[in-house]
Amino acid sequence: MIIHGRSKNKDKLLLLAKENAEAIEFELTQSAEHAQAIAAKCEGYDLVISCGGDGTNNHVVNGIMNVASDNRPALGFIPAGSGNDFARVYSSGSIDEMIQQCKSSTFGHLDLIKLKCDSLETHVLNMLTCGIGAEIAKTVNARKFKMPAAFNYYTAIIAWLAKYNAPMLEIKFNDELIQSETFLAAMGNGAYAGNGLGLNPQSSADDGMIGLSIIGNVGVVDFLKYQSALKRCEYVKDHRVSYHKTTEVFIKVLEGTLPIETDGEFCARLNEGEHLCVQLLPSALKVV
Fold it and tell me: What whole-number distance in Å separates Cα of residue 217 and Cα of residue 234?
């Protein structure tokens, strides 16, 4: 078990680990990078259990993907973070259930998303967003242990909607090419991000496709208008919002700068002329 060292559920998770001490080893993380380093050394184990939020899951997944595929353990999840958006679409069940599934070699498989740009190459489990979502994630993470999660997310959303300048992007996918000012391009296996906002209702973690949602210039009033639909993970009927499914996306920055976040963690900022590529890795992750 890899347990987020600052999780509010840390004591409960430690108790679970100790109750299953014959079958389970555990480590507390000291940083996000520490979670990835621990997972990267998991060769020879049958199962790695990620105990944290979407950011912890992301780092654990990237660590596991450093292990050769024929020696890569299965991955299980116990949601113990602030957003837990991936847990809204996928659950591994209890520790006992995970152990039994491993003993009987009863595994499932989930897709992963691979992001590549000039300064970065990484895997994404739940969702990556380009644009305002990355600025929101950066603000949320800077103050996440100082205020309640929902209040943190929503105040950050409102603040950035009031001041964000959308870059001009060129987005290529399937046989389409879109050039527009883009507030948000969300690419996901999971449907939710931002503490329960259904940005990608068309997404599924095991269908061999990436859900792509593109949002044009919107503001605070629009968010308040569509908030209930987003919470219910419904399609927003607005000409500035479009939904797609694909296996590969190319984005080039034509004007402005483009911030990027993966699974709720700010990771890069692209300048004019720079580009990124997003590709699907079907059934890349063995899970319980």
Answer: 20
Residue 107: count of CB within 10 angstroms of its CB: 14
Which residues, 6 or more positions from 115, have their beta carbon under 8 angstroms from its beta carbon? 121, 122, 123, 124, 128, 260, 262, 276, 277, 278
Q: What are the structural domains, with CATH classification, of the chain? A: 2-106 (3.40.50.10330), 117-283 (2.60.200.40)
pTM for the complete prediction? Answer: 0.94
Q: Are strands 27-28 and 2-3 parallel, antiparallel or unpaired?
A: parallel
E strands, 15-134, in order: 27-28, 47-52, 74-79, 108-117, 120-124, 127-131
Residues 6+ apart with CB under 8 A from 120: 260, 267, 268
HSE value, Cβ hemisphere, 13 Å, CA-based, for 96: 1
Pairing of strands 74-79, 47-52: parallel
The predicted-structure confidence for 188-211, as pLDDT tens digits, reads as follows 999 999 999 999 999 999 999 999
